[in-house]
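[step 3/7] fold_predict: job queued, chain A
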Amino acid sequence: MSTPAAVATLRAQSHPINAIAFHSSNLRLVSGDDDGWCIQWSLVTRRPLAVWKSHSAALLTVKWMSDELLLTHGRDNKLYLHRLNDSPLDTDIPGAHDNPDNWRRPWLVTSLDVNALNFCSAATWGTNRIAVPGTLDSDTVCNFCN
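[step 4/7] structure written:
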């Protein structure tokens, strides 16, 4: 079996990428990096659709919960649920010294303080279940259901 050839290379993040998730439509992709930045990509144009700083530390997870809800889990001990719809967001690629507050962020549906002291990221099941390492004890699992 031969090695498959890359269809495209998406370049924009200036830090190592830690998390990637395809959208169910297979037309979009979200990548998250070691500095907390997220980029939503168009796989048709191969350009950013949205760029924002989701977390103040490295991303552990990006996961689509539905067509427009994106879950992000960061090393800043935060879990965020963002609504990504047709509202205009910035597509400019940040420089090393740019202020992340200058970028518009997607609508924040909810946030949750979680444990990120270990390297375990959030797990999801369906559109309404999230499991994370225990907030007070890493030997336990906290399960949240909407």
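[step 5/7] annotate
The chain has a mean pLDDT of 86.
DSSP finds no helices and eleven strands in the chain.
exit 0
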